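Q: I'm writing a short explainer about Deoxyguanosinetriphosphate triphosphohydrolase for a general audience and would like to include a description of its predicted shape. Could you first generate the structure from this sequence?
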Amino acid sequence: MNWKQLISAKRWGYEDRVPNEQFDARSEFQRDYDRLIFSSPFRRLQNKTQVFPLPGAVFVHNRLTHSLEVASVGRSLGRLFYNLVKKNNPNIDEEAPFLQEVGNIVSAACLSHDLGNPAFGHSGEAAISSFFTDGKGMKYQELVSKEQWADLTHFEGNANALRILTHPFKGKDPRGFALTYTSLAAIVKYPCAAIDGHIKGSHHRKKYGFFDAEKAVFEKIAQELGLKKDPSNPGGYVRHPLVYLVEAADDICYNIIDLEDAHHLKILSYEEVEALLIPLCGEDNLKDRLATLEDPASRVSLLRAKAINTLINACANLFVQHQEEFLAGTFQKPLMEALDSDIVAHMELISKISVKKIYNASAVVQIEIAGFKVMNALLEEFVPAYLKSNKSLFDKKVVAMIPSQFHSQQEDTYSKIRAVLDFVSGMTDVYAVDLYRKIKGISIAALD
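A: Of course. Here's the predicted structure. Afterward I'll give you a sentence or two in plain language.
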């Protein structure tokens, strides 16, 4: 693989269009970022759970604020990578004309990396999957192919993001978001189908990156950008190198910023957070600076900023040092797991404490359980009603609640189920709970 082919300004759905940026204020990749920022699916992230229940008295991160912060870190990673490459090779712009845009590309991909996540975080994904593995959706197995069944029983937000960005939803632009091929490729962490994913010990097949419905979409992207076929899986590909930077930005943010939220919610004391972050800060006189700040939250903010800066520099330098491996598709682990052993050990400590004290906190577990019940109940109503050929009056009323954009233009079972999942997975936490209450008769909309 080579950077000249890997970074393409060609747009999905506008393959014959030749960009003319002579008088444009934005590059093609900055346009990608702006299209995402102004989109409805991105705005809906403000009401989707990141880790903690959505704001009450204390503000914590949601999917939208998390995505914005990941995009900021991703931009820094991309810019630092380009600056380091440029320093080592002053002629790089002639060899790879768009390499200077890496910061914008990674930032745009970071914005969309959680676009396909359903309400209630990972609990929402699990609820959708369990509807088919253990719930009333089990009966549809004989009506779909084994490849289709694999992605229904393992709902994956990453694959759903690619679908949202490229699928021709009814009444919408048939070209989807019409993003550049490179921005699309940079979000696919696991470039394989569901039936080829979930391989233990394989970083790029740990899950999967595209639904059966989007298999041809990703293959077209991969061929255009020259992605190498996966030697361990004839049906898949190796990662686009920029996926590693997107993944690192996400890993940096949630590992560090979850500690900040935990401090705001009094799950972790200031002393606990300081002990976890100060070894990552790399500043000799930091203790003196912290002593000048009376507000504990301000101290945590400073620690967070310094720790993130350390990790950005470490990841960017590692990415440059191992360029040949990334371009050959042979690098075998996430950047954050390949850093200096002291950093890796400390990040493992943070992860261990986060699992114990944050991700298993009572408020987190409660929202996961509630979300599981809500999502499963919605699927129990919408999937059977939408699939029935002879619909009852009740079924027709249920189907009428699905916006027209989500209705399938194909009649096969898989496409119809996929259409319902498009609707349900796109819901915010608030909307899903409200709809659940109305369908179950717990609350009734006021009449004018």
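A: For your explainer, you could say: The longest strand covers residues 233-237.
Q: Perfect, that's easy to follow.
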